[in-house]
Specification:
mainly alpha; five-stranded parallel β-sheet; globular
Amino acid sequence: MPSPDKTQVIRAYQAAQRLQAQGKADEALAAYRRIAKAAPRLPEVPFQIARILADQGNWPDARAAVEAALKLKPKEEAIWAVLVDIAKNDGKPAAILARARKAGLSDVALARLDARAKVPIARSAEPVVPGAAEPFIRRASEATRAGDDAGARKLLDRALAKAPGSAPVLIRRAETLMTSGELDAARADAKAAVEAAPEVGGYWRVWARGRKVMADDPLLTQLEARYSEAENGSDHRRQMGFALAKAMEDIGADDRMFGYLNEANALTADRFPYNHAADLEVAELLRNAYTADLVAEWDGKGDDSVAPIFVTGMPRSGTTLVEQILASHSQVTGGGELALLYKPLADIARRIDLDGVKAGADFAKAGAAFATQMARRFPKAARMTDKSIATYAVLGYVPLALPRAKIIVVRRDPRDTCLSVLKTQFADGQHRYSYSMESTAAFYKLFAGQVAFWRERAPEAFIEVQYEDLVADLEGQSRRLLDACDLEWEEGVLDFHTAERKVKTLSTAQVRQPIYSSSVGAWKRHEADLAPLFAALGPIDALP
């Protein structure tokens, strides 16, 4: 039988990925194994097989698959990361780290793997999902990861039909409803979940996030009692601490907020340590690789078939608001945090650092790959946004890959930005700097320095928007945004809060409201508690 050609293999691989995203693990596994027989030199195939087997708890076979992937691509950090996770189940991740060091991985990659190895294996603290509902909730999680929120909602509805009143199902449906703006229904589900399982800290976090907590709410009294009873250092206490910090701010008990918040952040920092030196090293590499010779050689040679709009900035700086305004335009589809371009551009920069400007030939390939993914995800979109936070770090490289791209960098008073970051519980393992005042300040200064570098070296690549200016002059700044993106003015963008698009960020509730100014200067309410942050930031006027 003749070997399949490259196109056939790619199509088969994409079909297997779709099965995997739909939660059809066994079908995906069979498809990947067929591809492995036909194209045994593709590392992506055993890598995906390893991921599925690890999710199923089949550690020996998962390890064999990931080892096969490593033989084909021995310096791929993502493969080593899966191997570290597998090794944590037999208590020997240190041996894997030693192997990775011998394999020649970069110091930055080794630092990330080391941090990953120190994170405890996640063990569910939630009640077990009733057996009849478990397949539906598992498939709903896969549908959510694939961007099919409507499908996830239907599956969760079916799970509740199988297990009425199940707290794990209710809380997941609450989170799904929040992303689509169905806040009243989400609040009802979250309330039902905490009433059904008040001992579970994570449920209280979702409950508090989706509402403005009132001082006379009897559930607040119950939350405080549960927090007092929770074991010191436990994950339940950590989650309840974040919920109580948010509740204290809601009811105006500012003097009590930081007691809860500081403990919750400290517990999170212990679980997910931050390596600032690694971030500094990456930032320096990205700056050093960007030279006049590189731009002269590769400017204008990228993929010009799409004109995406990138919205970037620090978390909690107003990026979701800006994206929602843009996505309210008739010609723009909101893509959310796609995270498709940063890693390819950063990888090219690393190769430039080693091989010189000739490695810049890959910018066009990265742009074409991005365009292909956009066409697949948004086949009917004239323009689309990508609100990936990390884009700020590679601003100057984006035009080399996508000459027609537009980039918006959102800035906000650093004191308000850092305060909001500190108050936010991000997904475990993400934004690790955000769980202490000192590391949050250090990361903000890294961010500001990187933007200042691009402002000097690639000023035509992006525009900056100040959150406070947007709040004070919504129409004027919205006109500026549309003009910068080559879009005609539409009054409808001013009604961004009525848009029906899903918002998969922690700003879900905020962008469902008209513009408000109450968050401007919020740091003043907490000036004494934030003294360590201000000391670490230094003079505000001196920041780039």
